Amino acid sequence: MANLIESRENILSLEQAIYEYNVVNMETLCNEKYELWSLLEKIHAWFQKIQLDEIETVFSCDSKTKTEQIALLVQASMDKTWELLNTGTWKNVPEYIKHIYSLLGFYKMATTLLSKSPVDWNLKLMEDCIHMLDKGILLGYNNPHMTKAVELLMGLYNAMVNNGHSEIKSNWAAVTSKSSVVMSSWKITGIRGVAIQELSAPSLLTFQSNFLTVRRPVKLRDCVSHWPALAKWDLAYFRKLAGSRLVPIEIGKKYTDEDWSQRLMSLNRFLDEHMCEHSHAYLAQHDLLSQIPQLKQDIVVPDYCYLHPGDNIDSSLPIGDSTNSSLLTDQSGAEEKQSDGFIHNDENEEETEAHHVDLNMWFGPPGTVTPFHWDAKHNLLVQVLGSKRVLLTGPDSHMYPYEGLLNNTSRVDPELDLDILTREFPDFVKHPGKDLKCETSQSNSKEEAQSSVPHNQTPGHLIECTLNPGDMLYIPPKVWHHVRSLSTSISVSFWF
């Protein structure tokens, strides 16, 4: 009971920081006072009053009635903000509306907890409150104070699991006792590519001059062997660390299909219901590492991400040495600047933006497919768990792109039989674009050499790559790539 009351006090103490964070940003983004602000001020004033009351009086009849009234006010404000979030396109939603929604997510969680005595807190309540915070983070804004609130509730949730909820503990034990990786039954179909060039931890100068500048794909080995994620990341680890967290899941075979959709669900539900072949569910292109900062401790942003084609590099600088300040940003400093979430007018803003790295996670069952598409940024794709097959082809290949918003996505399915491909996409097969100057590495294993043997026919412009744990693939901008998971798979992409 004492621990629960202490946790309740910690939640109340976070309210001031979260309120100030969002109000400062709202004032920066909006010149006029918004109508919902007066409601937020009333809610904030009530929380301030609670913190001045004695802990025993908070659950008196009068106080509980007031809590219920505030909870109704919070819900009404959330309903109004939800309408604004879903009016028009997402990119046109005012930024201050997202800050309001994030703040209201915290208030809904807090009033839900305060409406009950700590002795009545249970796992279902904790999970519901965690989801309220996650909705505020995913649809609004994340910040260190919201992260602390989630970590506090996750601590309570895990403590409850460890104190007598045997059905959940047995589920965790079952996940831990079996292999996390399920292999796909998929057999190679369609066309194949020539084996990609491979290198073991090339120097920064070699990577820049031979690949980054000329935009040539390459598979890199031994660059992330120091990552704790390679030893820690499996399904049991994610379930224990973040099983009750809410995450966005893509539902559908491919995002180009008409029945494709996205849903928010707990990570536990995703693991329980969709971590099997043919489920067609994918946690794709999501910055899970910002939503769950503990995961960032398990990886390191590769130094290659801070290179630029025109930089002058000390040829003696080894991979992993980030001391060349003219080339590489101070990673710890960059993280510190970004961590508070505030809007800064930094005199080095252009340099910071130029070196910004977007991190995304790709987590799914065997058989997930990302169709041929290209990205506007340089991409380092690191495989952490399981394996994937990637096909690549140059920007000038005949790829039959969709029109409109999906013009960076191809209608070509390379896994179709060659006769179907030739009939439906003749230029893709018969008139390949320029190759990507892929030079097969002499160090390729016999198995990898055998895997590059063409099935039916190998168009000269296709490159093929199999990624296993610890492998990193460099994908240049505008290079088309098709990805299939060959097993349960976790990857992290770095766009720069």
Q: In percent, how much strand structure appears in the residues? A: 5-15%
Main beta-sheet strand count, sense and barrel state: 9 strands, mixed
Uncertain residue segments: 166-178, 316-353, 440-458
Termini separation comes to: 48 Å
Strand order of the largest sheet: 2-3-12-9-14-7-6-4-5
Q: Work out the count of structural domains.
A: 2
SS field, number of helical segments: 17
**What is the name of the CATH class of the largest domain?**
Mainly Beta
CATH T-level topology of the largest domain: Jelly Rolls
CATH superfamily of the largest domain: Cupin
What structural category arises from helix and sheet content? alpha+beta
Walk me through what this model shows.
GO terms for molecular function: histone H3K36 demethylase activity; metal ion binding. Its cofactor is Fe(2+). InterPro entries: Cupin_8 (IPR041667), JmjC_dom (IPR003347). Keywords: Iron, Metal-binding, Nucleus, Oxidoreductase. α1 runs antiparallel to α2, α2 packs antiparallel against α3 and α5 packs antiparallel against α6. The protein is of the alpha+beta class. α8 links the parallel β2 and β3. The protein has two domains: 159 residues; 233 residues, Sandwich (Jelly Rolls), CATH 2.60.120.
